[in-house]
Amino acid sequence: MSDAAKWYVVHTYSGYENKVASSIKQAVENRRLHDLIADVTIPVEKVTEVKDGKSREIERKLFPGYVLVKMVLTDESWYLVRNTRGCTGFVGPNSNKPLPLSDEEVAKMGVEKREVEINYAVGDSVRVIATALYGSIGVVDSIEPDKNKVTVILPMMGRETPVEFELNQVETLDE
C-alpha cells in the first residue's frame, strides 16, 4: 500500500452508511483494487442504552450519513466510490477533486489506531494534560492499552475518585 493513501469523507443517503461501505468493500474485492482502496469505515461509539428498565450496549454512528474511505485518489478509485449506489459524493468544495482529511482531523476522529508509548505504570503518580481536569495529579489505578484507557485515582471533593482517560491524556510527573 502506498503512503499516498489518505482518508476521504463520502456523503451517503441517510441510513445507507452500512450498505455503501459494504458495496465499496465488495467492489474492491471484485476488481482487486486493494492497492488503491485500503480501508472503508463508519466511525461508531459504544453507548449504553436503557430501555424499559433494561440496559444494553449499542453502537451509535458518530457521523450519520458519512463513510470514511482510505484510498489513493485516482480516476479509477474516485469513479468506483462516487458511483456506488447510495453515495451522493465526496465531501469538499469540489466533488470532482475531493480534499483528504488532515492528519489532525484523522487523529481527532479516532479513525486510525495510533500507538501510544506508555511511560508510566500502575501506582505511578501522573498529571492530567487534557480535558477539564487539566493539571490534576493522581495515581494510576489500571492501564488497558488495547482499549486506549488508563484509570487514575484523583482526589475530588475530599474523596479518592477513579477517572478514566485516554493513554495520551496523562503524563508522568517530572521528579
TrEMBL record:
UniProt entry tagged with the keyword Transcription: yes
Superkingdom, taxonomy of origin: Bacteria
Segments forming domain NusG-like N-terminal: 4-113
Gene Ontology biological process: DNA-templated transcription elongation; DNA-templated transcription termination; regulation of DNA-templated transcription elongation; transcription antitermination
Pfam families named among the record's database cross-references: NusG
Gene3D superfamilies in alphabetical order: 2.30.30.30, NusG, N-terminal domain
Family matches, as InterPro entries: NGN, NGN-like_dom, NGN_dom_sf, NusG-like, Rib_uL2_dom2, Transcrpt_antiterm_NusG, Translation_prot_SH3-like_sf
GO cellular component terms, A-Z: cytosol
Keywords associated with the record: Transcription, Transcription antitermination, Transcription regulation, Transcription termination
Entry function: Participates in transcription elongation, termination and antitermination.
Database matches in PANTHER family: RHO-INTERACTING TRANSCRIPTION TERMINATION FACTOR NUSG, TRANSCRIPTION TERMINATION_ANTITERMINATION PROTEIN NUSG
Family membership noted in the UniProt record: Belongs to the NusG family.
Protein known as: Transcription termination/antitermination protein NusG
